[in-house]
Specification:
- With 183 residues, the protein is of the alpha/beta class.
- It is 46% helix and 20% strand.
- The protein has ten helices and six strands; from the N terminus they run E-H-H-E-H-H-E-H-H-E-H-E-H-E-H-H.
- The chain has a six-stranded parallel beta sheet with strand order 3-2-1-4-5-6.
- Helix 7 (104-117) packs parallel to helix 8 (134-147).
- The two termini are 26 Å apart.
- 42% of the residues are buried.
Length: 183
């Protein structure tokens, strides 16, 4: 199945100030998540950003909210966005949810399993997810795949959202996000 821009939304899980430094690839995660948010914002994909206990872990990284200024930010204490019941109706009404964030083996995993339990088609953006250890991330991706989630990359998401080189944003997106060294 392909990502359909009329059926999809992006959910960015817990990429927060006080948590990012503990990740296995903090600089890469920041850059790749910002790339994904900026590209999908240009394609006008509805976006939700969750924050795990922001009083303790801080807010979402400023460069991420700046890349997607129309994104709705929700907070939670449950690890799963589904269990926290913090997801807006606009996200829950859509059939497909594209998910990235951290930690892959905790909040991302539990949210993805919850979304699958709701009957959603879930696409996990592997290169925009992170955990404290590579082993935890790998185990979570394998478990999500086994549960029925599609494991994708940022470029797969963007090209599926455009669908064709005839898309009105294709030239701009290609020149802005697909040339030179990518994060």
């Amino acid at each position: 199945m392909l990502i359909d821009p009329l059926k999809a939304t992006l959910l960015v899980v817990d990429i927060q100030e006080k948590l990012i430094g503990a990740m296995s690839d903090p600089a890469g995660t920041r850059a790749r998540a910002r790339w994904l948010l900026a590209a999908t914002a240009e394609l006008q994909l509805p976006t939700v950003i969750s924050e795990q206990y922001p009083q303790g872990l801080g807010s979402t990284l400023t460069e991420l909210t700046a890349a997607a200024p129309a994104a709705q930010v929700v907070s939670k204490q449950h690890f799963s966005c589904v269990a926290a019941q913090c997801l807006p109706a606009s996200l829950l009404e859509r059939e497909q949810v594209i998910v990235c964030g951290m930690e892959t083996h905790v909040c991302v995993l539990q949210t993805v399993l919850g979304l699958l339990g709701l009957g959603k088609q879930v696409f996990v953006v592997e290169d925009a997810c992170d955990s404290r250890t590579v082993a935890n991330k790998a185990a979570a991706l394998a478990r999500m795949r086994a549960a029925g989630a599609q494991i994708v990359t940022r470029e797969m998401v963007v090209f599926e959202l455009m669908g064709s080189a005839a898309h009105p944003q294709f030239r701009h997106i290609s020149k802005t996000y697909m040339v030179g060294e990518q994060p």
